[in-house]
Amino acid sequence: MSIGDVTGFMRGGVFQVLMLASPMLISALVVGLVVAIIQATTSIQEQTLTFVPKLIVILLVLAFLGGWMFTSLGEYTTQLFRQIPAMAN
Q1: pTM of the entire structure?
Q2: What angle do CA 59, 45, 51 make, to 5 degrees?
Q3: What average pLDDT score do residues 20-37 get?
Q4: Cα separation, 62 vs 59, whole angstroms
Q5: Closest Cα to residue 53, out of 32, 33, 23, 36?
Q6: What is the mean pLDDT of the chain?
């Protein structure tokens, strides 16, 4: 096992994390921005107002993309386990 192999595993892991987390993070960012604009225009300064819409949007994203996320993570994990015998050499 070389440094290049370890680097490849790390790169794949980081890419997988970014790919799985980005839909939820981007949707929460957009909802937070929209709620902040609404708060600024209406002069409502309630700090907890952004929590519920973000939570709902994140749960909806998980409901719609959860199957794809688990499939992608399962394929990546299977790929890692298939490479274990090559690491032993």
Answers
A1: 0.78
A2: 10
A3: 94
A4: 5
A5: 32
A6: 90
Helix (H, G, I), strand (E, B) or coil at 44: coil
Chain centroid, CA 38 distance in Å: 26
d(CA 8, CA 43): 50
- Token digits for 27? 């949707």
Whole-number Å distance between alpha carbons of 63 and 76:
21
CB 31 within 8 A of CB 54: yes
Number of residues that make up the chain: 89
Long-range contacts from 82-86, C-beta under 8 angstroms, 24+ separation: none
The answer for 34, left when phi > 0, alpha when psi is -120 to 50, beta otherwise, is alpha
Q: Please, are residues 31 and 53 in contact by the beta-carbon 8 Å criterion?
A: yes
C-beta of residue 20 within 8 angstroms of C-beta of residue 72 = yes
